[in-house]
Amino acid sequence: MKLQAGLLALVLAGSLAACGGSDGAGDANAAAKSTGPITIWYSNNAEEVAWGKQMVAAWNVAHADQKITAQEIPTGKSSEEVIGAAITAGNAPCLIFNTSPASVSQFQKQGGLVPLDGFDGGTSYVEERSGDVAGQYKSTDGKYYQLPWKSNPVMIFYNKKAFAKAGLDPEKPALATYDEFLATSRKLVSSKAARFAIYPAPSNEFFQSWFDFYPLYAAETGGKQLVEDGKATFASDEGKKVAQFWRTMYADKLASQEKYTGDAFVDGTAAMAVVGPWAIATYKGKVDWGVVPVPTSSGKPANEIHTFSDAKNVAMYSACKNRGTAWEVLKFATSQEQDGKFLETTGQMPLRKDVASTYADYFTKNADYKTFADQAARTVEVPNVPNSITIWQTFRDAYSKSVIFGQEDPGAALDGAAQKVDQLAAGS
Over 70: is that where the pLDDT of 334 sits? Predict the structure, then answer.
């Protein structure tokens, strides 16, 4: 890991001089007021790049002495590793518009993040923009080291043509309860409308549980996080119901244990997918799709369903010298006007309260996205706790072994993982 960090530091050095190296605690107050050029990173997603370029151009026209230099986040095994290496090297940019909430506790532990509460009106800006959901992004010390920026509420996409081929109603699919979902899945497979009903990634990366277990767990529990009050919650009756549902999907060959290269939904290999609104542009012209909330055991009404947010946020990094400018840029880039442009360009949901009413004209013109705007009001984030990624990996290891591959009873696996997670959440 030290070697990786060193190599990445060499790649990143030089282009980030505008932010300078890591500053000591004595310089923090001065940096908070300092203005001047800054560097930012954003995602390499084409739509986000387009939004980022126009945002930067708009800022730079009006701030000749505080210009932004922007680039896509450098490539690497993962953005988390790239950012972590930049923190270690002391040359992270001022702002990154691609910060995973799961990584915030680790970046904070590295001393790589600037608390936004230290800026004038910082706390109120975060909370007034995002509303009640902001509390999920507060760190254990009570501060905000990330601005909740944008989400992709996870729902069930389904292929209308595949459903019709299986003799199912493509406009009102029976997918609300686990029993309905299983019966529908069996019919899709037995009719050969698709090889698999659904195809969540069966691989073992820590984040894969965000797209199989976690959305259904959020829905089943009415919005619980994986860890709350320093304790694992997932070994509950609700968590075991979700795990058993997925175990049945795998045991009955309705979902695949094999890794898939490509997009199984677009290719027609699977009739359904667990994904957020970012995928709409990908599916355009390729799949005649519909969308419904994730299922629950009892079939809760849609307006009560919670799901995983799949958010990416904005964070300010401690290597930044001109933090006064960085703070103003952060507010400019997440203003109502820029959030509207982001929505129009990417179809992703700004993490601000009342998205549906604030941008009513957009959703009138783009009805496909309205369902996601409604769902965006009920999203659940990964818990902001110490050892977050290790916690998710611990959970995923147990889930993979028991639920996907059937090598252990799912309930027993969750019980065992919960004990380990409790220790990790305590910081040990």
Answer: yes
Mean pLDDT of 10-36: 55
Which candidate, 273, 256, 39, places its Cα nearest to that of 158?
Answer: 273
- From the list 96, 107, 76, 202, the residue with the least C-alpha distance to 149 is 96
Q: Where do runs of H (alpha helix) occur along 307-351?
A: 323-333, 336-346
Tokens for 304, please give them: 């009560």
Distance CA 316, CA 324 (A): 11
Q: 318 by DSSP, 3-state: which?
A: coil
Distance separating alpha carbons of residues 375 and 108, to the nearest angstrom: 30
Long-range (24+ apart) CB contacts under 8 A made by 48-56 are 48/97, 48/345, 48/346, 50/345, 51/341, 51/342, 51/345, 51/346, 52/97, 54/341, 54/345, 55/332, 55/333, 55/338, 55/341
Q: Is the CB of residue 63 less than 8 Å from the CB of residue 372?
A: no
Bridge partners of residue 336, in order along the sequence: none
Helix or strand (DSSP H, E) at 190:
helix 178-190
pLDDT tens digit string along 403-422? 999 999 999 999 999 999 99
Q: How far is CA 71 from CA 24, 50, 75, 92, 409, in A?
A: 26, 12, 11, 12, 47
User: How far, rounded to the nearest angstrom, does the alpha carbon of residue 130 sit from its chain's CA centroid?
Assistant: 16
